[in-house]
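ok so I'm stuck.
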Amino acid sequence: MISKIKEKRINLVLASSSPRRKELLEKMGFSFTLERVDIDEVITSKDPDVAVREIAVHKAEACRSRLRAEDLLITADTLVYASGQFLGKPKNHKEAKEMIQCLSGSIHEVYTGVAICYKGEIHSFAEKTQVEFYELEESDIAYYLTHYAYLDKAGSYGIQDWIGLIGVKRINGSFENVMGLPTSRLYQELRRILEE
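replied:
not stuck anymore, here's the structure
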Protein backbone atom coordinates (compact mmCIF):
# COMPACT_ATOMS: atom_id res chain seq x y z
CA MET A 1 0.00 0.00 0.00
CA ILE A 2 2.90 2.37 0.64
CA SER A 3 3.92 1.97 -3.01
CA LYS A 4 0.32 2.76 -4.05
CA ILE A 5 0.50 6.05 -2.15
CA LYS A 6 3.74 6.91 -3.96
CA GLU A 7 2.34 5.86 -7.36
CA LYS A 8 -0.75 8.02 -6.90
CA ARG A 9 1.46 10.87 -5.65
CA ILE A 10 -0.64 11.22 -2.54
CA ASN A 11 0.71 13.58 0.10
CA LEU A 12 -0.09 12.25 3.59
CA VAL A 13 -0.78 14.96 6.15
CA LEU A 14 -0.97 14.24 9.88
CA ALA A 15 -2.82 16.99 11.73
CA SER A 16 -1.63 16.39 15.26
CA SER A 17 0.72 17.82 17.85
CA SER A 18 1.17 14.37 19.43
CA PRO A 19 4.78 13.17 19.24
CA ARG A 20 3.50 9.62 19.72
CA ARG A 21 1.22 9.75 16.66
CA LYS A 22 4.10 11.14 14.61
CA GLU A 23 6.40 8.36 15.84
CA LEU A 24 3.85 5.62 15.11
CA LEU A 25 3.11 6.88 11.59
CA GLU A 26 6.87 7.01 10.90
CA LYS A 27 7.25 3.43 12.16
CA MET A 28 4.49 2.40 9.73
CA GLY A 29 6.85 3.50 6.93
CA PHE A 30 4.91 6.53 5.74
CA SER A 31 6.33 9.85 4.60
CA PHE A 32 4.07 12.69 5.65
CA THR A 33 3.88 16.34 6.56
CA LEU A 34 2.69 17.65 9.91
CA GLU A 35 -0.11 20.14 10.28
CA ARG A 36 -1.15 21.74 13.53
CA VAL A 37 -4.83 21.79 14.41
CA ASP A 38 -6.26 23.68 17.35
CA ILE A 39 -9.92 23.17 18.14
CA ASP A 40 -12.01 23.11 21.27
CA GLU A 41 -12.31 19.39 21.97
CA VAL A 42 -15.89 19.45 23.19
CA ILE A 43 -17.49 16.12 24.05
CA THR A 44 -21.13 16.10 22.92
CA SER A 45 -21.92 12.38 23.18
CA LYS A 46 -21.99 10.12 26.22
CA ASP A 47 -20.95 7.22 23.98
CA PRO A 48 -17.11 7.16 23.94
CA ASP A 49 -17.00 5.55 20.49
CA VAL A 50 -19.08 8.38 19.05
CA ALA A 51 -17.32 11.10 21.08
CA VAL A 52 -13.80 10.34 19.80
CA ARG A 53 -14.99 10.02 16.20
CA GLU A 54 -16.81 13.36 16.43
CA ILE A 55 -13.70 15.13 17.73
CA ALA A 56 -11.48 13.53 15.05
CA VAL A 57 -13.97 14.57 12.34
CA HIS A 58 -14.16 18.09 13.80
CA LYS A 59 -10.35 18.31 13.55
CA ALA A 60 -10.48 17.13 9.92
CA GLU A 61 -13.16 19.70 9.09
CA ALA A 62 -11.00 22.44 10.64
CA CYS A 63 -8.13 21.49 8.28
CA ARG A 64 -10.08 20.59 5.15
CA SER A 65 -9.95 24.06 3.56
CA ARG A 66 -6.12 24.01 3.62
CA LEU A 67 -5.85 20.69 1.76
CA ARG A 68 -4.70 20.34 -1.83
CA ALA A 69 -6.19 17.82 -4.26
CA GLU A 70 -3.39 15.31 -3.68
CA ASP A 71 -3.53 15.49 0.13
CA LEU A 72 -4.80 12.72 2.38
CA LEU A 73 -5.38 14.03 5.88
CA ILE A 74 -5.31 11.96 9.07
CA THR A 75 -6.60 13.31 12.39
CA ALA A 76 -7.17 11.50 15.67
CA ASP A 77 -8.36 11.94 19.21
CA THR A 78 -7.89 9.66 22.21
CA LEU A 79 -9.94 9.50 25.40
CA VAL A 80 -9.82 7.25 28.43
CA TYR A 81 -13.18 6.04 29.73
CA ALA A 82 -13.24 4.90 33.36
CA SER A 83 -16.00 4.50 35.94
CA GLY A 84 -18.53 5.98 33.52
CA GLN A 85 -16.58 9.18 32.90
CA PHE A 86 -14.25 10.56 30.23
CA LEU A 87 -10.66 11.25 31.17
CA GLY A 88 -9.03 13.58 28.70
CA LYS A 89 -5.76 15.42 29.22
CA PRO A 90 -5.31 16.70 32.77
CA LYS A 91 -5.22 20.43 33.41
CA ASN A 92 -2.76 20.20 36.29
CA HIS A 93 -0.88 17.93 38.72
CA LYS A 94 -3.85 17.52 41.07
CA GLU A 95 -6.15 16.40 38.26
CA ALA A 96 -3.49 14.02 36.90
CA LYS A 97 -3.08 12.41 40.33
CA GLU A 98 -6.85 11.95 40.65
CA MET A 99 -6.99 10.33 37.22
CA ILE A 100 -4.19 7.85 37.97
CA GLN A 101 -5.80 7.02 41.33
CA CYS A 102 -9.08 6.35 39.49
CA LEU A 103 -7.31 3.93 37.11
CA SER A 104 -5.35 2.14 39.84
CA GLY A 105 -6.53 -1.41 40.48
CA SER A 106 -9.23 -1.32 37.84
CA ILE A 107 -10.07 -1.85 34.18
CA HIS A 108 -10.64 1.11 31.88
CA GLU A 109 -11.10 1.60 28.16
CA VAL A 110 -9.05 3.70 25.77
CA TYR A 111 -10.84 4.96 22.66
CA THR A 112 -9.16 6.56 19.68
CA GLY A 113 -11.22 8.12 16.93
CA VAL A 114 -9.54 8.58 13.55
CA ALA A 115 -10.73 10.68 10.63
CA ILE A 116 -9.29 10.34 7.14
CA CYS A 117 -10.08 13.08 4.63
CA TYR A 118 -9.40 12.22 0.99
CA LYS A 119 -10.87 13.74 -2.18
CA GLY A 120 -13.27 15.84 -0.13
CA GLU A 121 -14.76 12.92 1.81
CA ILE A 122 -14.23 12.29 5.50
CA HIS A 123 -14.14 8.67 6.65
CA SER A 124 -13.99 7.90 10.36
CA PHE A 125 -13.66 4.99 12.73
CA ALA A 126 -12.99 4.33 16.40
CA GLU A 127 -10.91 1.68 18.10
CA LYS A 128 -11.26 0.49 21.71
CA THR A 129 -8.65 -1.14 23.95
CA GLN A 130 -9.24 -2.37 27.50
CA VAL A 131 -6.43 -1.75 29.97
CA GLU A 132 -6.19 -3.19 33.47
CA PHE A 133 -3.90 -1.64 36.06
CA TYR A 134 -2.49 -3.29 39.15
CA GLU A 135 -3.16 -1.46 42.41
CA LEU A 136 -0.63 1.39 42.38
CA GLU A 137 1.02 2.65 45.54
CA GLU A 138 0.89 6.38 46.24
CA SER A 139 4.70 6.48 46.01
CA ASP A 140 4.52 4.99 42.48
CA ILE A 141 1.98 7.59 41.40
CA ALA A 142 4.10 10.39 42.92
CA TYR A 143 7.25 9.08 41.21
CA TYR A 144 5.52 8.94 37.83
CA LEU A 145 4.04 12.42 38.11
CA THR A 146 7.42 13.83 39.18
CA HIS A 147 9.55 12.18 36.49
CA TYR A 148 7.36 11.87 33.39
CA ALA A 149 5.32 14.17 31.15
CA TYR A 150 1.60 13.60 31.61
CA LEU A 151 -0.19 16.83 30.70
CA ASP A 152 -0.39 15.87 27.01
CA LYS A 153 -1.82 12.38 27.63
CA ALA A 154 -5.42 11.23 27.91
CA GLY A 155 -5.92 9.75 31.36
CA SER A 156 -2.59 11.28 32.46
CA TYR A 157 -0.48 8.30 31.45
CA GLY A 158 1.55 6.89 28.61
CA ILE A 159 1.40 3.10 28.40
CA GLN A 160 4.88 3.17 26.85
CA ASP A 161 6.24 5.09 29.87
CA TRP A 162 7.43 3.81 33.25
CA ILE A 163 3.91 3.60 34.67
CA GLY A 164 2.88 1.28 31.85
CA LEU A 165 5.91 -0.92 32.45
CA ILE A 166 5.22 -1.34 36.16
CA GLY A 167 1.48 -0.79 36.41
CA VAL A 168 -0.33 -2.42 33.50
CA LYS A 169 -1.55 -5.91 34.33
CA ARG A 170 -3.02 -6.68 30.90
CA ILE A 171 -4.48 -5.13 27.79
CA ASN A 172 -7.13 -6.41 25.42
CA GLY A 173 -6.75 -4.76 22.03
CA SER A 174 -4.20 -2.58 20.28
CA PHE A 175 -1.24 -1.34 22.34
CA GLU A 176 -0.65 1.42 19.75
CA ASN A 177 -4.26 2.53 20.18
CA VAL A 178 -3.49 3.32 23.82
CA MET A 179 -0.52 5.38 22.58
CA GLY A 180 -2.91 7.40 20.40
CA LEU A 181 -3.07 5.75 16.96
CA PRO A 182 -4.46 2.28 16.15
CA THR A 183 -1.86 1.56 13.48
CA SER A 184 -3.04 -1.78 12.09
CA ARG A 185 -6.66 -0.62 11.82
CA LEU A 186 -5.50 2.66 10.24
CA TYR A 187 -3.50 0.72 7.64
CA GLN A 188 -6.54 -1.39 6.73
CA GLU A 189 -8.80 1.66 6.50
CA LEU A 190 -6.30 3.50 4.28
CA ARG A 191 -6.10 0.46 2.01
CA ARG A 192 -9.90 0.31 1.75
CA ILE A 193 -10.23 4.04 1.00
CA LEU A 194 -7.53 4.00 -1.68
CA GLU A 195 -9.16 1.02 -3.41
CA GLU A 196 -12.53 2.80 -3.71
